[in-house]
Design brief:
InterPro entries: MFS, MFS_dom, MFS_Na/Anion_cotransporter, MFS_trans_sf. The protein has 413 residues and is mainly α. The chain has a single domain, classed as MFS general substrate transporter like domains (Growth Hormone, Chain: A, Up-down Bundle), CATH 1.20.1250.20. It contains 15 helices and 2 strands.
């Protein structure tokens, strides 16, 4: 029964992250409509996206610690509840400042999702099973990103753009009720965790393992955030696709990204099952994905939206596979009780780099340079991230390979 319930928890976390990405992607899909209605510039839109990124980045410094301290049950429920209400607040915004405020609160609250998902895998699964659980969790953003372009534009055309924000946020509130009604499995090693001495939160910043995660997230997350916020505009700008027609190409991209998340969890688990060391399996998998994203600058020469979608799909396939293994690396080297804090700090760096990339994109588009400068950055950044991991952690050694939850210390102020 406990084994069945831990997979139920994974399923509920999966649904929450799907809703997370629905809420955050709506604005990107409605950009042409809202830009025409409110007379936004590309820089205005970049500032809205950056407000989300900056608020999320700051929140990540606390939400990882918060989820470690309060626990999954109440910590995750509070985060989902707040982000759902913030998503609904977009329906009542009429100015750039109103949208910026709504995006900032949404970004801050949604930052709970990543540490909660990673902590779930670290808490209830051993090292080999974690890769599978993280792989499943890794496709959740893509499922949300697939459903959103298929449903939101049509919903907006049928019921108005305000209704899309209200319905998506309302689904999050329903999730909170279901989550609180489910009894979570007992956490392995809970007694040992309660008795363990606390380690100052800031001490992670002197840990080389933490810097491997920071650099990996900073170098690669910028690609995801850039494409998440600008992909609909890219199809609209380069291929003339309207709000009603860009859904299918965008959905194809995120479908391929979902496959990347699944393979990112499966491949290292399969290699370890064949006798590979954790170090070799993890880094070889990351190298494969780093190489797969290299062709993405060819997008600017694509002759059709569908060819562009395949190129972008391969890029996000690679990103999700690589990202799943960055999460896996974090659970490999940190004990379950502090993994939320560790991934939160990494996500802080990733959101800041994402904000920089978004602002760079707004400048590049307004200046007439197009999308090529950002795509060149996307192509090389994964090899740089893997090089940073190899330099800092020449050999990945699992902190807790067989018994989730057993570790010598917990994070505290």
């Amino acid at each position: 029964m406990a084994d069945r319930r831990r997979w139920l928890v994974v399923g509920l976390v999966f649904v929450a992250i799907v809703l997370n990405y629905v809420d955050r992607q709506i604005l990107a899909l409605l950009k042409p409509t809202l830009q025409a209605e409110f007379d936004w510039s590309d820089r205005d839109y970049s500032h809205m996206a950056s407000a989300f990124q900056f608020a999320a980045a700051l929140a990540f410094l606390g939400t990882g610690w918060f989820i470690d301290k309060v626990g999954l049950r109440w910590g995750f429920a509070l985060g989902v509840g707040i982000w759902s209400l913030a998503g609904m607040a977009h329906a009542f915004a009429t100015t750039v400042a109103g949208f910026v405020t709504s995006r900032a609160v949404l970004g801050a609250a949604e930052s709970i999702g990543t540490p909660a998902a990673v902590k779930t895998a670290a808490t209830y699964f051993n090292a080999r099973e974690r890769s599978i659980a993280l792989g499943i969790g890794g496709i959740a953003p893509n499922v949300g990103a697939i459903l959103t372009p298929l449903l939101i534009p049509l919903m907006a055309l049928a019921m108005g753009w305000q209704a899309t924000f209200l319905i998506a946020g309302g689904l999050g509130l329903v999730w909170v009720v279901v989550w609180l009604a489910v009894r979570l499995p007992e956490q392995p090693g809970a007694a040992a965790e309660a008795a363990a001495p606390k380690v100052p939160w800031r001490s992670l910043l002197t840990d080389r393992r933490q810097w491997a995660v920071i650099l990996a997230k900073a170098l690669t997350d910028q690609v995801w955030w850039f494409l998440l916020f600008f992909m609909p505009d890219l199809f609209h700008r380069l291929f003339g696709l309207s709000q009603g027609t860009l859904g299918l190409p965008v959905a194809l991209v995120y479908f391929m990204a979902a496959l990347g998340g699944l393979t990112g969890g499966y491949l290292p688990a399969r290699l370890m099952g064949r006798g590979w060391t954790l170090n070799a399996a993890r880094k070889t998998t990351m190298l494969v994905y780093a190489l797969l994203i290299l062709p993405v600058p060819l997008l600017v020469h694509a002759e059709s939206a569908w060819i562009a979608a395949l190129i972008l799909g391969l890029a996000l396939f690679a990103h999700q596979g690589f990202s799943t293994n960055v999460f896996g690396l974090t659970t490999d080297v940190f004990p379950a009780r502090i993994v939320g804090s560790a991934i939160g700090i990494g996500a802080f760096a990733g959101n800041l780099s994402g904000m920089g990339m978004i602002e760079f994109a707004g400048w590049s588009l307004d200046a007439g340079h197009g999308y090529l400068p950002m795509l060149l950055v996307c192509a090389v950044t994964y090899l740089l991230a893997l090089a940073a991991v190899q330099l800092i952690l020449p050999r990945i050694v699992a902190d807790d390979e067989d018994v989730p939850g057993e570790a010598p210390a917990i994070i505290g102020h």
